[in-house]
Design brief:
This protein is of the alpha/beta class. It is built from 20 helices and 13 strands. Strand 10 and strand 11 form a beta hairpin. Helix 3 packs parallel to helix 4, helix 7 packs across helix 15 and helix 9 packs across helix 18. The radius of gyration is 25 Å and the shape is elongated.
Length: 478
């Protein structure tokens, strides 16, 4: 078994495998995250049946109906596992009856693993798929004590709404749900080591800021090349592997993918994001149920997140883009003509790249806030973590991250990405003091403020650095 990380998930799946009852396991998460690879590595030798739905991209503009193509594909999978069928099923009820006939041939004394990948793709319009799947599970599969049915899906909102939180015949039927997330920095480091790729933590951090810990993207890295050379090869070279990934990704995940891309493009323009009403106004998507469903889908798939700024009520709720790949792609590739094949190598020290690094570093810090809490020694302390923006000062003061702690301390955190120790200048020292003062006056917080700096290589010792109560480096994120 060649799996990097994922130990808690593996332990959970193996416990389910060893149970002596029928199990319905739902594994979901962002596309390219490694769901299929994980299940293959763990259980391929135990499969009684394996099938993967056809991508919506693959079934577009064909001369056959989408339902017909999906059923034809399902019949092909049945034959591969020994089903003696001569005709393609005409509907999903018939298709699952064929699957039951196949599974009945297997011994009841041995665990029978059935893996259906990209389940949401099979639920095409007016196909009756969910009804047939309910009938299959409730009418036969749930009574087979040796059966472990694993279903995967990248369309996370479908997995949640139609399967995990189903209010009909599948209500409370899922026995185990696993939301597979991107690798964290420590898992990425293990991955590079396993591939023989040598990078220091500074470059590993930048790589994470581009690829977001998505294994499929990282798999394109070649040892022996610098990070800049790899980025040019993967994104900027002619016919680069990830050059068109943005469009492919959204087309495969969302039926309303053009509106989804419209929202993501908007959120990429402002680091703190926008409230729902402003999103509707700027995108032209009607403010109502359609936008609500779209935002929920993007949130469930880990592209965006909703948050309420510190010390504000829920009516100030905002949505911001947090997917590192999208942030990178929309900044440097989207709608850019005549890209240089060596763009990244040629612009390493450019202001545009430096501005992006600052924003992306802040995003990575929020993703690893648990590591920051551990470095501060407050893992067990209840906290509220959010950005803050002043209401009463013009121009408005902003604090990257506020950690409001139950132990009566509030960490006022600033993130700075640099290629050496960060120097606090006289001007920045004054800015920090003004921010802290405005924060304490405006929010009326009686807790003790601790100025906290999160940097790559730490602070350069000078007359201003002593004001900082805690200084953390990128090492803590690993």
């Amino acid at each position: 078994m060649n799996i990097i990380g994922r130990q808690p998930v593996i332990e959970k799946l193996n416990q389910i495998y060893c149970s002596k009852k029928a199990e319905l396991v739902a594994v979901y998460g962002r596309r390219r995250i490694g769901k299929t690879y994980l299940i293959r590595e763990l259980y391929q030798e135990e499969w009684c049946f394996y099938h993967t739905g056809l991508s919506p991209v693959e079934t577009e503009n064909g001369k056959f109906s989408v339902l017909g193509l999906q059923l034809q594909n399902f019949a092909s999978s049945l034959r591969q596992f020994g089903a003696a069928i001569e005709t393609v099923p005409t509907n999903w009820m018939e298709a699952f009856d064929m699957l039951i006939a196949l599974l009945k041939k297997h011994s009841r004394k041995k665990r029978c693993v059935v893996f259906i990948d990209e389940l949401p793709w099979m639920d095409t319009e007016r196909s009756g798929f969910i009804t047939a799947f309910e009938h299959f599970w409730n009418g036969w599969a749930s009574a087979q004590k040796n059966l472990m049915l694993i279903v995967c899906g990248s369309a996370t909102s479908w997995m949640e709404d139609s399967l995990i939180n189903n209010k009909g015949g599948l209500y409370d039927r899922v026995t185990c749900e696993i939301h597979l997330e991107p690798f964290k920095l420590s898992e990425c480091a293990d991955y590079y080591h396993s591939k023989g790729i040598v990078m220091d933590r500074y470059d590993q951090l930048q790589c994470y800021m581009i690829m977001g810990g998505v294994p499929f993207y990282m798999d394109g890295l070649q040892k022996g090349k610098s990070l800049a050379q790899n980025i040019d090869s993967l994104f900027f070279d002619h016919h680069a592997q990830l050059r068109n990934e943005f469009d492919r990704l959204f087309a495969s995940l969302f039926t309303n993918h053009e509106d989804c891309k419209k929202v993501v493009r908007l959120l990429a323009t402002r680091r703190e994001g926008f409230p729902r009403k402003k999103i509707a106004e700027l995108t032209g998507i009607p403010y109502g149920g359609g936008l609500t469903k779209l935002l929920k889908s993007l949130t469930a798939s880990d592209f965006i997140t909703d948050y309420t700024p510190y010390n504000r009520s829920s009516r100030y709720q905002c949505y911001k883009l947090v997917d590192n790949f999208c942030l990178f792609y929309l900044k440097f590739i989207d709608n850019v003509k005549n890209l240089s094949r060596t763009f990244w190598q040629d612009n390493l020290l450019s202001p545009k790249l430096n501005a992006w690094r600052g924003f992306a570093f802040e995003t990575v810090c929020f993703e690893h806030s648990d590591k920051i809490k551990a470095a501060l020694g407050i893992s067990g302390v209840h906290t509220e973590i959010a950005p803050w923006r002043s209401k009463e000062v013009t121009p408005a003061h902003q604090i990257d991250m506020v950690i409001d702690r139950a132990d009566r301390i509030v960490n006022i955190c600033e993130m700075k990405f640099s290629n050496a120790e960060y120097t606090i200048t006289k001007a920045y020292d004054q800015e920090l003091r003004e921010k802290a003062q405005a924060f304490m006056e405006e929010v009326g917080n009686r807790k003790t403020p601790h100025l906290t700096m999160m940097t790559t290589y730490g602070l350069k010792n000078n007359e201003y650095s002593s004001r900082i109560q805690r200084s953390l480096t990128m090492d803590c994120l690993f």
